[in-house]
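job 3f2a | input accepted
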Amino acid sequence: MFNDIGALELVTIVVLAILIFGPDKLPKVIQDVTGVIRKIRAFSDSAKQDIRSELGPEFKDFEFEDLNPKTFLRKQLGENEDLKEIRSTFDLRKELNDVTDAVNSRGADAAPAASGGSAAPAATGPDPLKKPAAPAADQRTPYDADAT
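job 3f2a | predicted structure (148 res):
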């Protein structure tokens, strides 16, 4: 829960607690807060047990953490044999290396042309840096006030 709190933040919280509650009341406040946290955890555990007992024996292994979409997907993708087979046939790193090699070889072919060589430009399509021309009036869709 508090994995991203650094040392500076922790020191700041302690200093603020001492300034707000004072050194004489701070131990009592800490005891009260830890007691509330214990009661909340006990209530949560009790509610989980009640839900498990109401769901029946087929849900005895049910974990509430599985309701998190990331955890659910990770668990389902890890257990599915068909997906393991597909994953083993598809090597993403190999595909990325092939694409990288293709891009680097295209970049190497274009380098002589940029340095004053006589090679023709590789791209024959529209220039992506230029603004596209406005469509003709007959190509535009008519304005529909009901659709807006």
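job 3f2a | The mean pLDDT is 77.
job 3f2a | closed
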